[in-house]
Amino acid sequence: MADKALIEKAKKIFENFLAKQGSRKTTERFSVIDELYSLPEDEHMDVEGLFLSMRNKGYTISRATIYNTLDLLVESGLAVKHQFKDKVALYEQALTYKHHDHHVCIQCRKIREFSDPKINQIKEAMGKEFQSSIKSHSLVLYGDCLIENCENKPTLH
């Protein structure tokens, strides 16, 4: 179930962001927030998935509006954009975002999130070695699914 207070907080932040930019505050833009922030925290959604989900719920919105709104949400800090190997861009909500890394199954395409403190230790060590204040990192592990009868694997005909 979506956290209504979180959605309202996101909308307020977005409203302030749009005002500072001098951009229009449209119903369609705010409906994208409703949809993105109604997803489970660990869910990643592409534009097509958002478009279909919103259309199925009766929204009248174009793919272009979704693309443009997601760009604004990323710019405002309300969404995080990921690009995994050959996949299209995927988005997730950012207000509840805690840094994490990803494992992508090559066969079944499932994306799993994980965190490991050893990765931060490596990041700090590399910062020292390169005399750099590392601000962020991205780690994506790709592997083959070993789950027997994995429900996400494509079936061969």
From TrEMBL:
Q: Which InterPro entries match?
A: FUR, Fur_C, WH-like_DNA-bd_sf, WH_DNA-bd_sf
Q: Please, one GO biological process term?
A: negative regulation of DNA-templated transcription
Where is it localised? Cytoplasm
**Chief site of localization:** cytoplasm
Instruction: Please give the cofactor(s) recorded in the UniProt entry for this protein.
Output: Mn(2+); Fe(2+); Zn(2+)
Q: Where does Zn(2+) bind?
A: C105, C108, C145, C150
This entry's comment on the bound cofactor is: Binds 1 Mn(2+) or Fe(2+) ion per subunit. Binds 1 zinc ion per subunit.
Q: What GO molecular functions are on record for this protein?
A: DNA-binding transcription factor activity; transcription cis-regulatory region binding; zinc ion binding
* Keywords, in A-Z order: Cytoplasm, DNA-binding, Iron, Metal-binding, Repressor, Transcription, Transcription regulation, Zinc
Mention any one GO cellular component term assigned to this protein in its UniProt record.
Answer: cytosol
Annotated residues for binding of Fe cation: H99, D101, H137
Q: Which Pfam families match?
A: FUR
Q: What is said about its interaction partners and assembly?
A: Homodimer.
Return the similarity comment: Belongs to the Fur family.
Annotated protein name in UniProt: Ferric uptake regulation protein
Q: Which organism is it from?
A: Algoriphagus iocasae
